[in-house]
Write a structure and sequence with these properties.
Layout lengths: L11 H28 L8 H17 L5 H4 L2 H24 L7 H30 L6 E6 L3 H10 L7 E7 L6 H14 L4 E5 L4 H13 L3 E5 L9 E7 L2 E7 L9 H13 L1
Parallel strand pairs: 1-2, 1-3, 3-4
Antiparallel strand pairs: 5-6
Helix pairs in contact: 1-2, 1-5, 2-4, 4-5, 7-8
Length: 277
């Protein structure tokens, strides 16, 4: 189901820009289809209202099918699959709309509109994806990161971040927090960050507090972003969510197990106990 997450790496302006891009692509598809129909001697009804209905339906279906989500826009295959899905649902609604209204459009014209809509919207998103990759892989935009603390949670984090390699993410290794001396360990890590141009540090929550304090202070002074990864594996729930209250992270879980059903004998015993009273 369509939802806008509270926290996303993209702004709401980007989200709106994608919808406007689709609207422009659809208008361009309508224009090309109209020119083609007129060049073949066809006649067209008023298109202004039909375009509004067409674009509005397209946008609503795209929202509910998560076509504008960042995970969909990061792969060409997902863009194509989501667009085909939108077209199939959209065609069903347009068919019902044309049956209930007096407007008439030739079937060849509608096929052209769908064909151009698919090609132009997919092409525009492909160019957007390519541009984003090129911009992300520029030296000033690359994310060179390290992870301090090698745990199952940080290993899972690395597997997720590895999906962003094409978008400028580069992993420089796990650095353990253990060392003979705290000052020496801090010096080794800071030297590593300088020599490899590290601009993002992930800390596991099990890392020594004093080391985290020293390194976060260093990160703040050198414009290095950092995050602390909490370990939710010990929480006996299928899904967990982290919220922040006054800079205090709170990890909450949801239990999806069905509540125990009250059987008929149990209900009978309960009624008998009331009668006894």
């Amino acid at each position: 189901m369509f939802h806008i997450p509270k926290y996303t790496q993209y702004s709401k302006t980007f989200f709106l820009a994608i919808m406007l891009l689709d609207a422009f692509c659809l208008y361009f598809a309508f224009d090309l289809s109209s020119r083609k129909a007129l060049s073949h001697g066809g006649e067209l009804s008023s298109q202004a209202s039909f375009y509004v209905i067409w674009a509005l339906l397209w946008t609503i279906i795209s929202l509910f099918s998560n076509q504008y989500s960042t995970t969909t826009l990061k792969k060409v295959s997902r863009i194509i699959k989501s667009t085909v899905k939108v077209i199939l649902i959209h065609a069903l609604f347009i068919f019902v709309y044309l049956l209930t209204t007096p407007q008439y459009f030739e079937i060849n014209y509608l096929i052209d509109v769908y064909l151009f809509s698919m090609l132009i919207t997919i092409g525009a998103k492909f160019l957007l994806l390519l541009s984003y990759r090129l911009i992300s892989n520029q030296r000033k935009n690359k994310v060179n990161f390290i992870i301090i603390g090698d745990t199952p949670t940080t290993q899972e984090l690395l597997r997720s971040l590895d999906l962003n390699k094409k978008f400028g993410y580069r992993f420089y290794g796990f650095l353990t927090e253990k060392g003979a001396n705290l000052d020496l360990r801090v010096k080794e890590i800071t030297r590593f960050c300088k020599s490899n141009d590290i601009n993002y540090i992930y800390f596991d929550s099990s890392v020594d507090t004093k080391l985290v304090e020293r390194l976060t202070r260093y990160a703040n002074n050198h414009y290095i972003r950092f995050s602390i990864v909490h370990n939710p594996i010990t929480i006996p729930y299928k899904e967990v969510e982290t919220s922040v209250f006054n800079n205090i992270p709170v990890v909450s879980g949801r239990n999806f197990e069905n509540p125990p059903k009250i059987s008929f004998p149990t209900m009978k015993k309960l009624l008998n106990s009331f009668k006894a009273q």
